[in-house]
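Data card: per-record layout.
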Amino acid sequence: MSGLAIETRGLEFSYVDGTKALVEMNIAIPAGKKVAFLGPNGAGKTTLFLHFNGLIKPDGGKVYVAGQEVRYDRASLLDVRKKVGIVFQDPETQLFSSSVRQEISFGPLNLGLSKEVTEKRVRQAMEDTEILDLQDKPTHFLSYGQKKRVAIADILAMQPEVLVCDEPTAWLDVKHTRQVMEILGRCNERGVTVIISTHDVDMAYSWADYIFVMKDGQVIGEGAPLEIFDDDELLKDAE
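The structure for this 239-residue chain is written out next.
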């Protein structure tokens, strides 16, 4: 896969109290890569991610997905959300169904896919995230790490071109952090562009192909991991 997965041009967004969350944001995310957004809490990472599939409409500027400008009518948003799937930081905000299988089935069925196609997608997503043994369990009985994997499977069943994960390892122990990052790595090997946010500089260095560093609603640096980690001042701003 070549070209750009997502691009923003002059992206601006302010909260209702007037605080600027994104300031003249110009980024180009290469397709088919593992991309990390580094930055402290409040840097604007989550707000930026919510623009990637039209969950937030910018105050100014534009967002492009696979070269197409994101528009905000119902049909256009449905199309972009088929291409870009977002896994939220807290899986509790994403899981609603009574069982794991029902939860993961909801998205494909909502797209109008047949029961047969949906079942194939759901099984594949559960295999990819190592939760086949959990398929009949109530989601509210799962551990936090299990809920994280169900939330990822939820989006994978939609077969997006771009998988966006907001702090995918937040509040996970070392074992479950490794498990989640391996799952995301395998997704990328199949051609999915995987984008994460994190403030863990070591994880970003070891996992990502390309890194953006954010602070105060702006990208203050970007490049391959070696380039980013050669700049001590930039790393201080990322933490």
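Known properties of this structure: Residues 40 and 118 are 38 Å apart (CA to CA). Residues 174-189 form the longest helix (16 residues).

See the next section for split statistics.
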